[in-house]
Amino acid sequence: MLWLIICIVTAFLYALSTFLDNYLVDEFFKGRTPQALKIIDGPFCLIVAICLVTYHGIYDVSPVAILLMISSGVLLALADVPYYLGFRGEESTDTTILFQLSPVFYLIADFLIFGETITPEQIIAFGLILAAPFVIFLTERKYKKRTSKLKFISVVCIIISVIIYAFSDLLFAHGESNFDFISLFFYFLIGQGVASALLSLTQRKWHIRFANVAKRNGYKFPIVFCLNLLICTLTDFLYRYALIISTAAIVSVTTNSAQLILTFVLGILLTKLWPKFGREKLNKHIVRAHLVATILATIGIIILQ
Questions:
Q1: Staple partner for 3: which of 122, 127, 185, 246, CB 3.0–4.6 Å?
Q2: Using one digit for the tens of pLDDT, what is the confidence trace for 211-229?
Q3: DSSP 5-19
Q4: What is the 3-state secondary structure (H, E, C) of 120-142?
C-alpha cells in the first residue's frame, strides 16, 4: 500500500505544480518563450545531487542501472521544452487530461520491449481512461469556439512531452530496485542537470527572456518560481520511488488519474478563490464533461486494483 499512498501525494503535488506552471507561463511570460523557465533546472539539479552525495553518500550501482538513470534524466530534461510550449494554448485541466495517455505508452512499450503480458482487465481499464480525454475534447469542440492554430500546436506539444516523459519513467522503472534508491536518483539528477544545462547554454534568448521577466516582476516571480521548482523536485523523487517499488504502468495510471480528479477539484476552487491562479473556464458543460472524464478514470483505477 506504500506505493498507493505515494501516488496520491504525488498526484496532489503534480496538480499543484500544473497550476503553478500555467500561472508562470501566462502571468509572467505571457506565453512568449516559456522554455526560458528551464535555465535554472540544470544548476538546481546538480546542487541537489551534490547534497545527496554529501548527506547520504552514493552506494554501488551497476553500469546498466547508471545508464538507465542518466538516460531517464536526459529524457525528462528534453520533455520539459514541449511541455512548457504546450501551456501557451492549454488550461491546466486540459493538460492533465492529455497526460492520461502516458499509461498507454507504458503498456505498449512494456509489451514490445520488455515482453510484459496484457490482460483483458488492463485493456478495459486503459480503454476507460483513454475515453476521458475524448469526452473533454468533444465537449469543448461543441461548446467552445473553433479550435485555434495555437490550441492545436499546444495539444501536439503536450502529447510529444507525454511520450518523452513516459519513456523517461519507463527507463527509471527498469533501473533494478535492489539498488539503493537515493543512489539511483542521484544519477537521474546528474542526467537531468547536465542535459538541462547544456540545452540552456545553447539558447541565449532563454537567458535574456528569463532576466527580463525576473527584472519586470520583482519579488513575486522568484517566490513562485522557486516554490514550483522545489515542488517539482519533490514530486519527481516520490514518483520515481513509486516506479521502483511497483509496476510502472499501474503507478502511472493511478497517479495520473488521481491527478485528474485533484486538478478538476482544485481548478474549480482556485478559479473561484483566486481567478488569476486557477485560470479555468467554468462553463457548466465543460465542468460536466470534466466530471464524466474523472468518473471514467476512477472506474479504470478500480478495475486495475
A1: 246
A2: 999 988 888 899 989 999 9
A3: HHHHHHHHHHHHHHH
A4: HHHHHHHHHHHHHHHHHHHHHHH
